[in-house]
What does this fold into?
Amino acid sequence: MAATHIFDAPPPGVAADWTMPQNWAAFTPAQHQTWRTLFDQQSAALDGYACADFLRGLDILRAVKPGVPDFAELNRHLKPATGWEIVAVPGWIPNQPFFEHLTNRRFPAANFLRPPEQVGYSEEPDMFHDIFGHVPMLANPAFSDFLVAYGQAGLRAEKLGAADYLGRLWLYTVEFGLVVEDGELRAFGGGLLSSYAETLRALTAPEPQRIWLDIERVMRTKYHFDAFQGVYFVVEGFEELLRATEQTDFASIYRRIGDEGALEPGDAFRGDHAYEGALQPVRPGPAFMSEDTPR
Ligand code: CO
It folds into this structure.
């Protein structure tokens, strides 16, 4: 993966908290067209696959002028819903400022868009992943409170040297999480919903494991960055995710994992509670297959 938007220190023009002016006026007509292509194809593909809250949240993106979203305009629609706002950052930012933004209801979004030849596959999480994949769920009160609790847990995990364990919770929920809604398996993770190919696999393919969410199980489980996930975790709803995050003693989990070791995605674990409900049928998809990498 040729990631070029990873930094050790804020580059010129970027503030100490890693935010930067979006400079919306600098996006070109070609970039606005790339956004529209991505948005139209990806949103058309998600009916029946994305959870209802995600599909509703997409209306926030439809409410702003078409093309690359102007974050100031987007925030005027998002902030009244749950108090969240989007801040522009240069790309992947370090954990400490990332967690601090979350605790303050600021969601960092990469301020660059994939080139047109990467419409179907972005080499690194770009603005389309961050905005299309994550903004819709920010409009859900329980989910958005979960992200605040996650940020607070992140600041504690940094002090304990446990951010990698906590990062698995992000990966298996915020990026690749599944939810059962009216008896149907749906996706809410942004890594899934900005990637049609993996959404299809997560919801329709018999091969991957699907396990009801257990935070300790999640934090024990390694993940792939360069392949489809071998295991997906399922929640009954976002209140459950929030409560589990607020009520679980993460520090004792970190200690146990440190003592007992991690699991590969295909491993079984004591007490695993498999999701045994129905999968989704395969429906005709879009002409392209987007396979973004997460966060
Ligand atoms: Co992401």
